[in-house]
Write a structure and sequence with these properties.
2 copies of one chain form a homodimer.
Chain A lengths: L16 H20 L1 H19 L5 H6 L15 H7 L1 E2 L2 E2 L17 E2 L9 H19 L7 E3 L5 E6 L2 E2 L4 E3 L4 E2 L7 E6 L3 E5 L8 E2 L5 E6 L2 H9 L1 E5 L5 E10 L2 E10 L15 H4 E7 L3 H14 L5 E5 L12 E5 L6 H10 L5 E4 L4 E2 L6 H10 L4 E6 L6 E6 L5 E7 L3 E3 L2 E7 L6 E4 H7 L11 H6 L6 E11 L4 H4 L3 H10 L3 H14 L2 E4 L1
Parallel strand pairs in A: 6-15, 16-17, 16-19, 17-18, 21-27, 23-28
Antiparallel strand pairs in A: 1-2, 3-28, 5-8, 7-13, 9-12, 9-14, 10-13, 11-12, 14-15, 19-26, 20-27, 21-26, 22-23, 24-25, 25-27
Helix pairs in contact in A: 1-2
C-alpha cells in the first residue's frame, strides 16, 4: 500500500491537472520504493530506459545508432549543383530546353538560325506582332491555355480523396470515388464541399439538417456520427452544369482548417471514326494511294504503270492543278482538276480529303514502284504500333529529322536536327522521329486532322511536320523503298510546259521569305534553326 | 486544505492510473466540500459542468447543443436514396446517363430508336462485330484509352505534393513543385521516389550517400537532417525518357509505410495554326465561302449573284461532281471538278480543304443571300466566344439539335433531341447546341480537324455533327438569316439532267441502311434515337 498526499497550495486548473498530479504521485511512489528496495529500483529503471530507447530506435540501423546522435548532415550547406550541371540536366541533344522566359535564335557552326521576324518589313512589324498576339490569345482561350499552375496538396490532410482521373462528361453526373475522413474524433463533424463548374449531391438518404445544399455548388455535411459521415462521403456525386469541352473544376473538402483540393475534368470523349477493313482485309480496302501533280503528266503515267505492276486494284487519287486536264484510263484512279497553279499543299490537302480507307500512302508524282516497295510492310507497322505516320526510303534517302520545341514568351524556338529519338518498340529496324521523306503511310483520320496548309503553294516539306507537332507520332522504316524516276529525255529537252514547271518549282528568296513569315505568324515561332 | 486518501487495494496500472485517481480525488474533494458548504458545492458544480460543456461544444451551433448529447445520427440507418431519386440525379432531358454496362435502344412515343446492327445481314454480323472490336481496340490504344481508374490519396500522408497539373514535354526535364515532408522527427530520414516513364534527379548538391539513384527511375534520399531533406525535395526534377504523346506517369513518394502518389502528364503541346487577318481585317481576308454542287448549275449561278450583291470580293470555293464542268466567270471563284457522282460529303471535304482564311462559311448551292445574311455578325460571335461553329437560320429554320451520348460496352447509345443546352455567354439571342442547319460559319482549322466523311455520298447531315462530338463546340444564332431558292420553272419541268439529280438525292432505304451500318462501325454505336 502506498500513501501519497497532495501538497497544500497546489494548482487546480483543468488542463494541467492530470499531468501535474501524475508526476507528483510518481515521485511519491519512486521515493517509497527507493527507501524499501534500492537495488530493485535502479534495476527496474535501467531496464525501463533501455526498453524505451530500443523502442524509439527500432527502425534505425545499428551503425547509425552507434554513429551517435549528432550527424554531419546538419552542417551540410544547402547548395545547388553548378550552373553547368543544371544546364546539362535540362538539355537534350545539346539544346537547353528548360522553361525560360526568352529562347534565343543562335547561329552556330553548321547551324543556321532564322530569326523569323526578319521576314517582315521593319515598318510593318509592330502591327504584325499585335495581330499575332491577338490571334494567339484567341487560340489560347479556345484551347483552355495557359493551364493554371499545379494544384498542391498540403501534408497531413485528414481526408482521402481522388488525386487524378476523375472525369465527367458535360451535363452528366458521376460518383466521386475515394472520399473519406480520417481526422480526430469530435462531437460534431462539419465537412464543407465546394465546386465551381458543377453541383454536388449525395446518394445517402439523410435528413435535411445533416446535408445542406444538395444540388448546389456548396454542400455542408453536419453530423455527430462518424459512421454516417463516411457513408455520406462515399456517395458524393458531382454534376457538370455547363456545356463545355475541356474544363477542369477544382473541388474542395474542408474540415476546420484542413482543406483538400482535387481536380474534376469535364471532358466529352472524342467519338471514334473507325474504318471497316472488310472480311478479307484486302489491301485495296485498307489503303489508298494519293499524289499531286503539276505539268508533269508523263511522270504521273510512269508512276501509275509502276504501281499497277504490283498493286493492280488499289485506288489512286490524283490532284492536278495543271493548265489542261490529263486523261487517265484506269478504273481505279480518281482524278481531280484544280484551279491552275493553286498549289502544292492545296493539292495534297485535296487528295487526302477524298480518301475513304483507313490508311493513305503518300507518293510524289515522280516516284517509281519496285519490288522493295511493300505497302503491306508499312501497314503492318501502323497496325501494330501507336504511330500515326511511318515513312520509308526514297532510293536510300530517309530524310529523318527531329523537331525540338523551346517554349518561350514572344514566340517559341524550333530546333531541327537530323536523326531520330529512339527505336520503335517491336520493330528494331524502325525508329521514332519528327519528320520523314515524302513517301509514307498514314492513318487517314490522323493525317486529315493535321492536313497540308493550302497557303503553301510552292516548295514545302518540313512545314507539314511542324504543323503536326504534338499531333502526329512519326516513325521511319528505311527498308521499305520506293524508286525515283531518273531524268528522262524529256527533262533534258524540256517542253515549254516543263519549262514552266521549273519556274514554279524554284525555291526563290521570295518563297523562303514567305515561308518564314508564315512560320512566324501561323506557328507562333520566333526562331527556326 | 483537503486531505484525500487512496483506498487500499486499488489498482496501479499505468493506462487507467490518472483517470481513476482523478475521479477518486474528485469524489473526495466533493465529499469534503459538500459537508462544509452544500450550496456552494452545487453552484460550483453547475458552473463547472456548464463551462466544460460549452468548451467541448464551442464549434457546434446552439440548437445542436440543446438537442442533447445523445444524437439520433448514431442510430440513423445507412441507406441510399430511392432508385427513382438516384435515376433522376443521373438523368438529363429524361435520358438516364449514369455509366452502366449496357445502354438500350428504346422506341417510345414519338421517338424512333434504330438498333444499328440491324443494318447488317444476320449471317455477317458476328464477323462485323469482331472486326469492329479489333478496330476499336487499335483506336483505344492510340488514344491512351481506357484511362486508368482514379488515383486515390490516402488520408494523413505526411507529404506535400502536386495533385494535378504537372506536365512535361517528351524528353524534357521539369522541376516538380510542392514536394515537402511534414512527418515525425526521426534520427534518419529515408524517402524513396519512384517513376515509370521517366527518371528522377535533384538540383541539390549533396554527397552520393545522401541521394542514391540520380538519373534513375528510383531515387532514395537518406539523411539525418530534416532541413537538408526539405531542400532536396524542393529541387527534385523529372525527366521524360520516352518519346510519346499523351501518357501519364505515376510518381510515388515513400516514407516508411506512408506513400503519396501523383500524376505527371507527358504531353507535347499542339503547335498553333493561326491566320493573319491583315492590317484592315477585311472580310475577304477573314472568310471564305464554300459550297458543293451536283447537276444544278442554274442554282449555283443564282447563289453567286446573290452573294456578289453584298460581298463583291469574298472568295467562293465551288466543288462540283457533275458530269460536265460549269463555266463561272468570276475572279474570286475557285472551281474544282471531281469524279462524276463522287459524292456530297466528299465534295464538302474537298471544298473546305482549300480554304486559306481563318473562317469558312458553309452554304448549300440553292441558298439565296439577302440583307439579313450578315456574315460579319457570325464572325463577331466566333471572335468573341470559344465556339468552333455557329449556325444561322435558313428562312427561319434553325434545325438545332442536341446529341447526348450514353457510353456502354458493346457500343454507345446516341440520343438526338431538338433544342439547345444553354444560352451563349455574351450573346443572349444565341444558344449552345450539338447540331445546326447547313448555313454556318466555322473556324477553318477546327472544321478541317473533323472533316466531312467522303464515305457519305448521298443524303447526309447530322452525321457531320456526330463525327464532331467531343471536338466541335457548336452554337446557333437564329437572327442571321439566309434565303432559299424557291422552286424555279426549271424545277417544275426538270431537264434530263435535273431528273438524274432527283434520283441521286432520294433518301432511299438502301441509303438509310448504309448510313446506319456506318454509324454502327465507324462511330462504335449500338443505337441512335
Amino acid at each position: 500500500m502506498i500513501f501519497c498526499r497532495n501538497e497544500p497550495g497546489t494548482d487546480f486548473s483543468v488542463s494541467k491537472f492530470d499531468v501535474d498530479l501524475t508526476s507528483r504521485v510518481w515521485e511519491c511512489v519512486a521515493g517509497e520504493l527507493d527507501s524499501r528496495f534500492p537495488w530493485l529500483l535502479k534495476t527496474l529503471a535501467f531496464i525501463l530506459v533501455l526498453g524505451i530507447v530500443l523502442f524509439m530506435f527500432r527502425s534505425v540501423s545499428l551503425p547509425v545508432v552507434f554513429r551517435g546522435f549528432k550527424s554531419d548532415h546538419a552542417h551540410l550547406p544547402l547548395t545547388l549543383l553548378s550552373k553547368e550541371s543544371i544546364r546539362n540536366l535540362f538539355s537534350y541533344d545539346g539544346i537547353w530546353l528548360f522553361p525560360k522566359q526568352q529562347c534565343k535564335c543562335v547561329t552556330s557552326k553548321g547551324r543556321r538560325g532564322y530569326n523569323l521576324q526578319d521576314a517582315y518589313n521593319h515598318s510593318d512589324l509592330p502591327a504584325v506582332q499585335a495581330r499575332r498576339q491577338a490571334e494567339f490569345e484567341h487560340f489560347q482561350r479556345r484551347e483552355g491555355l495557359p493551364r493554371p499552375p499545379p494544384l498542391l496538396a498540403q501534408p497531413n490532410i485528414p481526408f482521402g480523396y481522388p488525386v487524378h482521373g476523375v472525369e465527367v462528361m458535360p451535363l452528366h453526373t458521376i460518383l466521386i470515388p475515394g472520399l473519406q475522413y480520417e481526422g480526430p474524433e469530435v462531437p460534431v463533424y462539419k465537412v464543407t464541399l465546394k465546386a465551381s463548374l458543377g453541383s454536388l449531391n449525395t446518394l445517402a438518404d439523410v435528413p435535411g439538417d445533416v446535408v445542406h445544399g444538395r444540388g448546389r455548388k456548396e454542400m455542408i455535411i453536419s453530423t455527430s456520427s462518424r459512421k454516417l459521415l463516411q457513408f455520406i462521403l462515399q456517395h458524393v456525386t458531382y454534376t457538370s452544369t455547363v456545356y463545355q469541352h475541356h474544363w477542369v473544376d477544382t473541388v474542395s473538402l474542408k474540415f476546420k482548417s484542413s482543406v483538400a483540393k482535387f481536380p474534376v475534368t469535364i471532358r466529352h470523349p472524342v467519338i471514334p471514326k473507325l474504318y471497316d477493313p472488310g472480311p478479307e482485309k484486302q489491301l485495296r480496302n485498307l489503303v489508298t494511294i494519293a499524289t499531286k501533280t503539276f505539268l508533269r503528266p508523263h511522270k504521273v503515267k510512269v508512276l501509275l504503270q509502276s504501281i499497277r505492276k504490283y498493286y493492280p486494284d488499289v485506288t489512286v487519287i490524283v490532284a492536278d492543278d495543271s493548265k489542261e486536264p490529263m486523261e487517265i484510263k484506269d478504273d481505279y484512279v480518281e482524278y481531280y482538276l484544280m484551279p491552275f497553279g493553286k498549289g502544292w499543299f492545296a493539292g495534297r490537302n485535296l487528295a487526302i480529303s477524298q480518301v475513304t480507307t483507313k490508311y493513305v500512302l503518300w507518293v510524289d508524282d515522280d516516284f517509281l514502284f519496285n519490288n522493295k516497295t511493300k505497302i503491306e510492310v508499312l501497314v503492318d507497322v501502323l497496325e501494330k504500333t501507336e504511330l500515326d505516320v511511318v515513312g520509308g526510303s526514297v532510293l536510300g534517302n530517309v530524310f529523318q529529322f527531329k523537331l525540338l520545341l523551346e517554349q518561350s514568351e514572344g514566340g517559341d524556338c524550333l530546333n531541327k536536327r537530323k536523326g531520330w529519338f529512339q527505336r520503335l518498340d517491336g520493330f528494331p529496324r524502325c525508329v521514332v522521329t519528327s519528320g520523314v521523306v515524302n513517301f509514307f503511310l498514314a492513318h487517314t483520320e490522323r493525317l486529315q486532322r493535321v492536313g497540308f496548309d493550302p497557303r503553301l503553294q510552292r516548295v514545302a516539306h518540313s512545314e507539314f511536320f511542324v504543323d503536326g507537332l504534338g499531333s502526329l507520332l512519326v516513325g521511319s522504316c528505311p527498308y521499305v523503298v520506293v524508286g525515283h524516276q531518273s531524268h528522262s529525255p524529256e527533262d533534258l529537252n524540256p517542253t515549254p510546259l516543263e519549262k514552266i514547271y521549273g519556274i514554279y518549282r524554284k525555291n526563290t528568296n521570295d518563297q523562303i521569305q514567305f515561308k518564314q513569315a508564315l512560320h512566324y505568324f501561323k506557328n507562333h515561332l520566333q526562331c527556326f534553326e
